């Protein structure tokens, strides 16, 4: 993109000047007056010298039948960053990458007090562009401007295919320039090099809805397609910060787990062994244990059943009963253990131990009612019942850990996917395809 002449110290108020094309006689309106270098006749497509009183014809070009009008018509006025601008020029440009042509549109905006700025649009992606006030510092695959570092994205030969309106430089159709883009989303630093000069510009990604609002355009802007080179990521780009926060919260969670474990009583309040005679009729094996105390504040109770089952099972109907209030907690537990060998080798399933947590049990005097069941053909089964008070349960901490970990993973995955889509269109794609040698 070429630059215009700098704005005057005391510029005139906005005004237009009507002229006629020397080629076809059609009316031509100059909106930027002394700022225009060239103006294009929309009737015969002649590029005219706006500085020449006779509007000398500099070039005449053919327009393809498929050419579409600008999304923002010439003469449209809008407000960008608090300043009123008028659209005075439009051009369609293109590059070719691996034989594929990519077109984008550029709009020239003018304010007599602020000078010229630009809007570019590619597949629904917009950039608000100004000319750099000083030269950037260029290094290996990066450039620095106003203290910010930009990564090299792409270098390509840009061609001007179509022009309309007026321009503050000597525009030509089929004019070529070497365009180089450096990105630091949402900003983009670009240079255009011709045989005569190098021009630097700074662009900032702008959403189409903001453009439509600024220029009060009818309808809705075109939907963006794909990921543009300086498009901001929809998720946080501070992935390191997210993981630092995760590690901080995880550390606090670990401290809370340790504190909870240290303050838990974890005391055994009952432990006794029994033998189940499997031949006893159902119901007659039911019994109650001795009374045991659950002291302190309301806390959980863990009942652990250990049984010497050997290719067998035992089922126990439990009831934890408060002797003082009669409140009961009923539950059933099975202990089973089987093993053997088949064509795939040794196998086993089950366990000889089972534990269950009864939450929020108030202090008081308790006993267990136990009713065991088992295979009537199996020999007697020995089992023991152990009751512990205030056992630390870390399941909540596990859920909290996952609640912290999963969002960090999802955000990181979305960020990486977005960046891979961005850089896959650059000169530095994440994965080089087709580089293998036979």
Give a quick rundown of the structure:
This protein is mainly β.
Structural notes for this entry:
This protein has 438 residues and is mainly beta. It folds into three domains: 17-215, no CATH class; 233-264 and 392-431; 271-391, Jelly Rolls. The protein has three helices and 26 strands. It has helices at 208-215, 239-263, 395-423; strands spanning 17-20, 27-30, 38-40, 46-49, 57-60, 77-80, 83-97, 100-111, 115-122, 125-131, 137-139, 142-145, 148-167, 176-184, 187-193, 198-206, 267-276, 287-288, 292-294, 299-307, 312-322, 328-342, 345-351, 353-361, 364-374, 381-389. It has an eight-stranded antiparallel beta barrel. A hairpin with a 2-residue loop joins strand 9 and strand 10. Helix 2 (239-263) runs antiparallel to helix 3. It starts with 16 loop residues before the first strand and ends in a 15-residue tail after the last helix. The model is unreliable at 2-9 (pLDDT under 50).
Mean pLDDT: 89
Q: Specify the number of helices.
A: 3
CA-to-CA gap between the ends?
Answer: 43 Å
Strand content: over 45%
Sheet with the most strands: spatial strand order: 7-8-9-10-16-15-14-13
Number of domains: 3
What's the β-strand tally?
26
Give the low-confidence spans.
2-9
Q: Return Rg in Å.
A: 39 Å
- Overall geometric form: rod-shaped
Order of helices and strands: EEEEEEEEEEEEEEEEHHEEEEEEEEEEH
Please estimate the helix content: 10-25%
Structural class: mainly beta
